[in-house]
Sequence to fold (404 residues):
Amino acid sequence: MMVNASKSISVLIIFLFAISSLINVKCIAQNKATSTKHCISIADSLSKVRSYDESNKYLHKALVLFEQKQNVDSIIYCCYLLGYNYKNLAKLDSAIRYLEWSKELAVKTQNPLLANVYNNLGISYKKKGEYNIGLSYYQKALDLNIEEVGEFHPKVAAIYNNIGNIYIQKSDYEEALAFHSQALNIRQSTLDNDHPHIAQSNNNLGIIYGSLGYYKKAIKVFNIAEKIFLKNFGENHPSVAQCYNNVAFAYAELNDNKNAIYYINKSLDIKLKLLPSNHPLIAEAYTNLGTYYYFEKQWDKAFELQDKALRIYLAAYGNYHPFVSREYVNLGRTLLNQIKATSNLNQIDLCIENYQSAIASNVTNYSKLNIYTNPDLDKCNSQLYLLNALIGKSETLYQLAINN
Fold:
């Protein structure tokens, strides 16, 4: 009796499964047109809450269907959103691949999304350290936006903001100040006082003031940005983390390492909650925390953190990138000052190797095998990082000479 009941239940389950499968097939056949729209809608929602990997799963499914139907406008949008998501995941090669695909189709059809595609290509190339390519895409986005909405509009302010960020990375702070001031002027006239974009502009101006040596002025505008970000997003948000990171830098330059380490640890805690452990923004926090331990003359702790940052940057960007160059400089500088403090030359070869690697990751076609070869300045990505590498290498060679 028990066996028969079990068999009956099994047969019933199989029957119900078959019926449900037939119903599903019928629904899919009837609603094929809406299924891709559903995927895109879900992908959009997931992207907005920063669930980029989950969003991409739906986008890849939708893209296959759009290609089958040769729906060009939908392919443009799907590739754009894939590129946007991959950019935020720091998977820059994938981001550029999909954004370039979106761009090619958008140019042919004059799709209204083209300005956004150009802008995100600019961001992606900027993150790769290819600043001139990034600037060229920002200029294209700027031209289209001014043509569409006029010069005094938040869309235009966003492009000015992004151009200013590239000039920050190029260490051209006067040019950066001009673009970020222009962005803030437009935003203050067109947005509410507590809008996150107002905070973003203040945050970027703070970076510039700090880089120009106006550290107290930098802290003042960072505090404005922090209050607005906290009001809009709460504590656990990437923008708040970056603001804490920047405040820490200013305090460090004022030799207030207690506050510097406090704020960078707050920044790191938030980033570790929100981001994968191998994300470049995590590396940035390790870099800055390492710098503060460097100023405290805790060489081993500084070196450990800088090495962690370097490994993340190498995995994310490869050997040729300004941030990779900067981290090699930091490692060389830490070793050099440890050598000076202890008169122990055991690490001097590693110190020279780090400075050579810093040059090689910043100057194309530079061989780091011969330490006396001069780099070609025309092939340099960041002049500031190259200058720091050359100064560090010369100081290291001087230490080697006076101790032999």
In short: The two ends are 96 Å apart (CA to CA). The chain has a mean pLDDT of 87. The longest helix spans residues 2-30.
